[in-house]
Amino acid sequence: MSFSELNLFPLCLGGNVFGWTADRDDSFAVLDAYAEAGGNLVDTADSYSAWVPGHAGGESETVIGEWMAARRNRDRIVVATKVGSLSGRTGLSAATIRAAAEDSLRRLRTDYIDLYWAHIDDASTPLEETLGAFDELVTEGKVRNIGASNYSAERLAEALAISEEAGLARYGVLQQHYNLVERGYEGALRDVVAEAGLTSTPYFGLARGFLTGKYRPGVTVDSPRAAKASEYLESERGPRVLDALDKVAASHGAAPATVALAWLAAQPTVAAPIASARNVEQLRPLLAVADLTLSKDELALLDEASAPAGG
């Protein structure tokens, strides 16, 4: 079954925190709550959380694999993982993809990956080689769908053309940086996705936490992402977006994070935004996106507030 045909929950649960800022017990609690709410799409990568001292990567996959084994729910979870950015396994050569896939399958305790991402475009490896390696995994049943993460419009279009000409597995979904304060996707890249009939699952849907509304002038937030998130306050646009989020959130009795994700979910080509939570309390407003539909006027208000300068 293709990715676009899957009955996906409107929120993709990001697994970057599992085995990092969320320990095993907290990770299990978040995954349990997500699944109990009807969630079924979990996104991870072999490189999560290799940036942490003492970690080698694969920690998130391991936690998710242990959770699925413990809950015996593999057939109800759509698992997405990535290849290409783990130290020692960088790039998208055929050998790297094959070895990384076998390692991911082992850590996830499964015999197939629902969606296998090319994590970062690799200009040094011919697209024919990369797509050929993915095609072999699809043919063997070890991978069911493939996706492109962090690809430019030109490279994505080229990859799709090669798949078409050579009869190889085709990227069916894009993962890209996109949210209310990062709208660069709205242009050539989105045009390629729409024209080719692809869907997308944007990452950093909450702008590293900025769109939760907890980052305000004069407020100190204890988070590994605080420095990056706070940068959005340095322009007029950041506070303007927060004001608009507050207005819409108040009218629904919702959290700003829920509104930010609902705006993203309503955008053309978006199948489900990705967001992560360190604990169940953080997860609740993310899950609420499933029950919030914004009006045209509300979407327009958020569009205007978040419009880039000159946009």
Automatic annotation (TrEMBL):
SUPFAM superfamilies: NAD(P)-linked oxidoreductase. InterPro entries: AKR, AKR_Detox_Biosynth, NAD(P)_OxRdtase_dom_sf, NADP_OxRdtase_dom. Residues 10-306 form the NADP-dependent oxidoreductase domain. PANTHER family: NADH-SPECIFIC METHYLGLYOXAL REDUCTASE-RELATED, OXIDOREDUCTASE-RELATED. This is Aldo/keto reductase.
